[in-house]
Amino acid sequence: MRFVLLVEYDGTCFSGFQKQKRGERTVQGVLETAAAEVFGVPVSVSASGRTDAGVHARGQVCQLDGETSIPAVKLRECFNRLLPPDCKVLSSAEAPAGFDCTRAVKRKTYVYSAYYAPCEMPLLSRYAARLRERPSADKMREAARLLCGEHDFKAFSSVGSSAKTSVRTVYAVEIAERKQDGYTMYEISVTGNGFLYNMVRILAGEIFAVGCGKSTQFIGKAFETGERSLIAKTASAEGLTLAQVDYGFPLFGIPEEK
Amino acid sequence: MRFVLLVEYDGTCFSGFQKQKRGERTVQGVLETAAAEVFGVPVSVSASGRTDAGVHARGQVCQLDGETSIPAVKLRECFNRLLPPDCKVLSSAEAPAGFDCTRAVKRKTYVYSAYYAPCEMPLLSRYAARLRERPSADKMREAARLLCGEHDFKAFSSVGSSAKTSVRTVYAVEIAERKQDGYTMYEISVTGNGFLYNMVRILAGEIFAVGCGKSTQFIGKAFETGERSLIAKTASAEGLTLAQVDYGFPLFGIPEEK
């Protein structure tokens, strides 16, 4: 029987989702340790996609195969008793017949958060990067518009991307600006049908660069040439959160609140 | 010369503000280590008040005495180069003549944050406590109204409070409720002329208890009798943040943003 888990994690103390050979702490590792205890046998846990070291998730979808008499909705509690505080299962359910959480993805939404302030702020810096210059939200929205649509995003991926094609569709890039006492928070929400290695962090880097004065013409040139060097540096990991994975139908039913 | 510092810290990995004999990591400790390097001699750093282990601050005011040729506004950068990521100086200034950051306090505002959700949420639990029952914000506001004003808050302090009198004035208690996907966040902002040991966490505990159905009559009885046992348990430390210390005049000028 296949089960799906909606998983939230604080990526700060994880070396990414995927298990590492050197025994580093990973999200997959802690989930598989818990799963082995719940099911009484070793169980593999896979995800809608890997997240890098330091990247957070509030809506990662994972799956595992196993036999148990525990009702699917009760697996959440069983896992949470065994999981560490920085990784918890928000919902659990039986997977629909033939479902695969990696291949069935329709859309994913990531949020990249960054703040502009005169100095580092300890209560923000765990989940947001710090900007050294104040970007213009209007200019950021200009860049966002150019990035939407079906494009060859080769220039927006790190070397080492193993994908067969670098053509992806970005459905929406939304920019939110929130002025607070002493700092301004910027959030870039990116929804697409899939993302290349480091693509969201590179998109975010370029959007902030345009916000701080870089010409938008490099975006079109980068689509044409696939030249990584035309585009800004990869934004740092702590600002990135995998917000939602969409399969075109609800996997977990309506989120319950007692 | 006396200097004042506006300090933000994530209290998670500190054993409170005050230096401990056993060499535990404290906010005062890291500030004094940095100060000794900046001034070249040992320097004592004091605060508007101590915060307990695990309690955060985004507007703690600290002071120190020392001689330096560094302009007061530049001290921020000097400190921040030496301070760890979870404690930073947001502003620095010369103190007005005769100023004492502890005795001159007019008002303080604390915010207590807690969320209601079916399970622990890793991306919230560093800065908010988890509620096991859903409180009614309206009932919480009833409790809030009763707690405002000048009262003997003896029943709302932990044993070990060394204050001469337990009469304090609470100017305002505000309740905010924010419904999000999968959880509801509650914020209690408390402004007063001073607080007894654990007083804000005990007020928060009682407000949530009333929100979950406890009668408000215990509040009046607790003011009359000073009986700690009439009032709810102390709410946990991670939900509490010292938001602002008010001296009746701006210590740091207008917060700059380039």
Describe what you observe in this structure:
- The structure is a homodimer of 258-residue chains.
- The first copy, chain A, is α+β, with helices and mostly antiparallel strands and 258 residues long.
- Chain A has 2 domains: 2-103, Pseudouridine synthase I, catalytic domain, N-terminal subdomain (Alpha-Beta Plaits); 107-243, Alpha-Beta Plaits, CATH 3.30.70.660.
- Chain A is 21% helix and 29% strand.
- In chain A, strands 1, 2, 3, 4, 5, 6, 7, 8, 9 and 10 form a 10-stranded mixed sheet that branches.
- In chain A, helix 1 crosses helix 2 and helix 3 (137-147) packs across helix 4.
- The longest helix of chain A is centred in the first third of the chain and has 13 residues, at 27-39.
- The first copy, chain A, is globular and about 60 Å long.
- The two termini of chain A are 28 Å apart.
- The model of chain A has no long low-confidence stretch (mean pLDDT 95).
Q: Which helices and strands appear, and what pairs or packs with what?
A:
2 copies of one chain form a homodimer.
Chain A: E1 2-9, H1 27-39, E2 46-47, E3 56-65, H2 75-82, E4 87-94, E5 107-116, E6 129-131, H3 137-147, E7 149-152, E8 167-180, E9 183-192, H4 199-211, H5 217-225, E10 240-246
Parallel strand pairs in A: 3-10, 5-6
Antiparallel strand pairs in A: 1-3, 1-4, 2-3, 5-9, 5-10, 7-8, 8-9
